[in-house]
């Protein structure tokens, strides 16, 4: 008995002269209480298909569909040219009541000027006749169901006062407010941090158990799909490539596209080889950076984005820096490059301090940026962009510059013929290659990569990582690799540092840290890594966690993680833990300090305390 | 041409109209047998005829020539003020936006002070001091006219300054001037061009208004404003005398506005990546 029944769904976009088929011949079913995952690259038609089900496509989209049934109701969209009036009236009753949607970006899908309580209450009252107080009581219940336990007090807050995860919970509460039979979730965890993502998936699972709704879960992340869904649809270029139970898809894929997708994901899982010698290239010691708040000139509250960070990078290695959004990774990267000056502490490159004003000497540190769409000047051709650093810093002749640009483009895997084109002619992955080529033009010693693959699709991610590795092998470039994605960091770096709320809580060799995390936060982070393997993903247990909070550096003393830590001691709330060093590994946690474990002999071997 | 017209009818028709007006204003006063100020006592308030297309006014002057001589002044004032305001506004906005911090605060507050005084006041004051001429009208319009553009440019520069490509350029050793003029300004070209185009009709209207009130171009020189003012006394005898300059002024301002709106659309489209 299926709840949603779709046969032969086609969507075509008409954009002036050129037409574009976004979805072709899509047919599938979803049963009540089932979580159906829809996976595919961006542009494969996942979201378009979902919008077609809801009837939310813009006018330039033409939907031709065999039939869509929801339970007993026929919600087949009218053929182009037919009257949409009756369909729209029907959909107004269906949307919200029977089908609800959870959006990708929780902070933009809620109205920022209305308190969340009112947003939920209004949704309830729009669909059912009940008094304001009854609706409010129901709203508190819904928030509790969505994992916000002090719902009553949270209802008086505005969306911008809540963290991304909390906003998404509110979004889910709104979606659940009318007891929908079908919940469509369009990449609901993509914008969230790893630890929150994990909790969110647990929440979805619980909701399905409690309410028996069917969930269509759209995601590009195979790990998310593997750990949550019962059945999986793999979409490729607007068509359904493969459909099956999650175990069948992951362990016994039939379609060639599914196979390549899984192979790419598996490659992301492997550990990188250790590189680098013992000589230190970059030394960052006790660096802090404060930003003035927006409180006006009278009452300025300073926020400390980075607090007392110490680490070093050896020549030729890749140092991975991992942490949640807002933990100060990017600020640290900017201080390493010299764009920002540290408030306290020093950054030494080859033993010399990094000057704040970019001068001749710090062209040795270059940067690859996160967003390939914003990091290239849209009004310059690729050749102009790549020639510019040579023009300004070297005495090369025009011929030499041209040759250098051509060879660099070939090196990063682009055709030198295309150098005359503007950035908008290139795809995201190609743009990122151009960004890398530009960073390499001056032969830098250290390349700071600030989330270079976060904006890209999984197969493209792997290609860019491979390119970075090749470049490292052939040119001996040292890399500081920053990412929030643990899989990516693990894949490329030989040593990693884990950042939380402005401080580095643990550093060590990637292998050691991954196999045996010492700091409670590292453990929490690692337990939330989603592997594209259904059996393994489901076996993983979550950490004892408390209510989530915004991960900001606290002004008060004490360990920043203490409020979320399941192992917090009394001293964690009052004193800051010092860095404890055990050959090659550093942990900032009281569990490893001498006060806690007692005096140690010289030959003592530290093991994990948690 | 035809496909272009269909793609952006506003821009195409605006440019065609404007080109026709410019051409007429250049050619007609130059080629006409009558001078703009030559009086003919025998032909007062004559109706339209082949020798005087728009007829003559109360002094027997040919209105056809006078209208297009006035259009010359309008176009000169419009384009001249757009150029001066454009250069001043772009440079000032760049300086404020790129410097940021205290310099930005001081510069923009100074601009606010200049902008707070109505521009008519400047114009009338300058007229009184320097006498009525195109130069003093231009100066009067331009004293406060650049502030709006400076604000737009400043906003754009501040937005673009924070973009990653600007950071990348700084890391590669690009100097301030080059960042500003090669990396930032071309990316702000869209809003700048649109705002610049919209300055032109504003200046044309101000000139016509001042001449109408009697503090602008002085008789016997012909400006569209003075023509309308002079026709006022003859409205009961020959109402068509007022019709022609008003019509030409309307077409002129319409054509520039159409061009501006069309440019805005084209640039918007170009920025989305569809040329």
Automatic annotation (TrEMBL), chain A:
CDD domains: ABC_NikE_OppD_transporters (cd03257)
Domain ABC transporter positions: 6-262, 282-526
This protein's record includes keyword ATP-binding: yes
GO MF term list: ATP binding; ATP hydrolysis activity
Keyword field: ATP-binding, Nucleotide-binding, Transport
Single GO biological process annotation from the record: peptide transport
Keyword Endoplasmic reticulum: no
Pfam families: ABC_tran, oligo_HPY
Family note: Belongs to the ABC transporter superfamily.
Database matches in NCBIfam families: oligo_HPY (TIGR01727), PRK10419.1 (NF007739), PRK11308.1 (NF008453)
Protein name as catalogued: Dipeptide ABC transporter ATP-binding protein
Source species: Extibacter muris
């Amino acid at each position: 008995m299926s709840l949603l029944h779709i046969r032969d769904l086609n969507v075509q976009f008409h954009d002036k002269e050129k037409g574009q088929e976004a979805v072709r011949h899509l047919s599938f079913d979803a049963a009540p209480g089932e979580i159906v995952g829809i996976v595919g690259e961006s542009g494969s038609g996942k979201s378009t298909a979902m919008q077609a089900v809801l009837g939310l496509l813009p006018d330039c989209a033409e939907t031709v569909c065999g039939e869509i049934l929801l339970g007993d109701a026929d919600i087949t969209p009218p053929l182009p040219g037919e009257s949409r009036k009756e369909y729209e009236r029907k959909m107004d009753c269906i949307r919200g009541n029977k089908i609800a949607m959870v959006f990708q970006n929780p902070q933009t899908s809620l109205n920022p000027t209305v308190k969340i309580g009112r947003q939920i209450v209004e949704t309830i009252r729009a669909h059912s006749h009940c008094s304001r107080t009854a609706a409010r009581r129901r709203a508190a219940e819904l928030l509790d169901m969505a994992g916000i336990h002090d719902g009553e007090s949270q209802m008086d807050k505005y969306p911008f006062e809540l963290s991304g995860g909390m906003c998404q919970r509110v979004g889910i509460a709104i979606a659940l407010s009318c007891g929908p039979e079908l919940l469509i979730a369009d990449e609901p965890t993509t914008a969230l941090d790893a630890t929150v993502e994990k909790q969110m998936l647990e929440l979805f699972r619980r909701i399905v158990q409690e309410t028996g709704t069917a969930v269509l879960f759209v995601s590009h992340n195979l790990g998310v799909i593997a750990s949550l869904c019962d059945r999986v649809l793999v979409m490729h270029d607007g068509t359904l490539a493969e459909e099956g139970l999650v175990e069948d898809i992951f362990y016994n894929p039939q379609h060639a596209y599914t196979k390549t997708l899984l192979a790419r994901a598996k490659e992301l899982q492997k550990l990188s080889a250790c590189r680098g010698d013992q000589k230190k290239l970059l030394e960052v010691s006790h660096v802090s950076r404060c930003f003035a708040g927006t409180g006006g000139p009278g009452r300025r509250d300073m926020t400390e984005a980075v607090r007392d960070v110490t680490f070093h990078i050896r020549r030729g290695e890749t140092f991975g820096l991992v942490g949640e959004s807002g933990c100060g990774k990017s600020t640290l990267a900017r201080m390493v490059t010299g764009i920002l000056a540290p408030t306290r502490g020093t950054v030494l490159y080859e033993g010399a301090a990094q000057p704040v004003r970019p001068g001749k000497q710090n062209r040795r540190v270059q940067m690859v940026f996160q967003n390939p769409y914003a990091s290239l000047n849209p009004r310059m051709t690729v050749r102009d962009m790549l020639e510019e650093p040579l023009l300004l810093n070297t005495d090369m002749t025009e011929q030499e510059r041209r040759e250098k640009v051509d060879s660099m483009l070939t090196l990063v895997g682009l055709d030198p013929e295309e150098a005359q084109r503007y950035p908008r002619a290139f795809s995201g992955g190609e743009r990122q290659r151009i960004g890398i080529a530009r960073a390499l033009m001056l032969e830098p010693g250290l390349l700071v990569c600030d989330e270079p693959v976060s904006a890209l699709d999984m197969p493209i991610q792997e290609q860019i990582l491979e390119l970075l590795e090749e470049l490292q092998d052939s040119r001996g470039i040292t890399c500081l690799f920053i990412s929030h994605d643990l899989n990516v960091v693990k894949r490329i770096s030989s040593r990693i540092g884990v950042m939380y709320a402005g401080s580095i809580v643990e550093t060590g060799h990637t292998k050691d840290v991954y196999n045996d995390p010492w700091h409670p936060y590292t453990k929490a982070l690692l337990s939330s890594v989603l592997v594209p393997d259904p059996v393994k993903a489901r076996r993983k247990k979550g950490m004892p966690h408390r209510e989530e909070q915004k991960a900001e550096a606290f002004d008060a003393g004490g360990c920043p993680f203490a409020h979320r830590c399941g192992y917090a001691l009394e001293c964690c709330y009052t004193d800051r833990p010092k860095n404890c060093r055990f050959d090659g590994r550093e942990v900032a946690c009281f569990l490893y300090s001498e006060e806690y474990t007692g005096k140690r002999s010289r030959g003592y071997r530290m093991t994990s305390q948690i | 041409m035809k496909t272009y017209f269909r793609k952006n009818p506003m821009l195409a028709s605006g440019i065609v109209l404007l080109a026709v007006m410019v051409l007429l204003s250049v050619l007609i006063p130059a080629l006409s047998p009558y001078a703009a100020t030559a009086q003919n006592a025998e032909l007062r308030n004559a109706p339209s005829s082949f020798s005087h297309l728009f007829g003559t006014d109360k002094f027997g002057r040919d209105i056809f020539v006078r209208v297009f001589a006035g259009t010359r002044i309008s176009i000169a004032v419009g384009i001249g003020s757009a150029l001066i305001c454009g250069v001043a506004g772009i440079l000032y906005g760049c300086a404020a936006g790129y410097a940021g911090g205290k310099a930005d605060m001081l510069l923009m507050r100074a601009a606010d002070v200049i902008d707070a005084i109505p521009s008519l006041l400047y114009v009338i004051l300058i007229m009184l001091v320097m006498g009525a001429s195109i130069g003093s009208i231009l100066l009067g319009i331009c004293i406060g006219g650049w502030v709006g553009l400076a604000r737009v440019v400043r906003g754009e520069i501040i937005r673009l300054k924070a973009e990653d490509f600007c950071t990348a350029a700084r890391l590669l050793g690009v100097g301030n001037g080059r960042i500003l003029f090669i990396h930032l300004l071309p990316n702000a070209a869209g809003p700048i061009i649109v705002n610049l185009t919209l300055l032109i009709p504003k200046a044309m209207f101000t000139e016509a208004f001042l001449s109408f009130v009697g503090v602008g171009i002085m008789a016997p020189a012909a400006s569209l404003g003075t023509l309308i003012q002079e026709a006022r006394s003859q409205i009961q005898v020959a109402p068509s005398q007022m019709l022609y300059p008003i019509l030409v002024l309307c077409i002129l301002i319409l054509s520039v506005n159409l061009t501006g709106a069309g440019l805005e659309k084209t640039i918007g489209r170009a920025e989305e990546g569809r040329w």
